Amino acid sequence: MPQSLPELPRTLGELRTSSFPEERLARRTVKDELRANLICKLQRREELFPGIVGYEDTVVPQVINAILSRHNFILLGLRGQAKTRLIRMLTTLFDPWLPYVAGCEIHDNPYAPICRRCQLLIAEQGNKTPIAYLRADERYVEKLATPDVTIADMIGDIDPIKAARRGQDISDELTVHYGLIPRANRGIFAINELPDLAGKIQVGLFNIMQEGDVQIKGYPVRLPLDLLLVFTANPEDYTARGKIITPLKDRIGSEIRTHYPATLEHGIAITRAEAWCDRETGIEVRLPAYIAEIIEQLAFSAREDKRIDKRSGVSQRLPISVTENVISNAERRALANGEDVAVPRVLDVYAALPAITGKLELEYEGELKGGDTVSRELIRTAVGKIFNRYFEGVNMQPVIQWFDIGGTLKLEEDVSSEDVLRQLNGIQGLMEKTRALGLTSNEPDAVRASAGEFILEGLHAHRKISRSEERGFAAEERKRPAQEPEENQRARQRRQFN
Question: What does the domain layout of the chain look like in residue ranges?
Answer without folding.
Answer: 5-257, 264-475
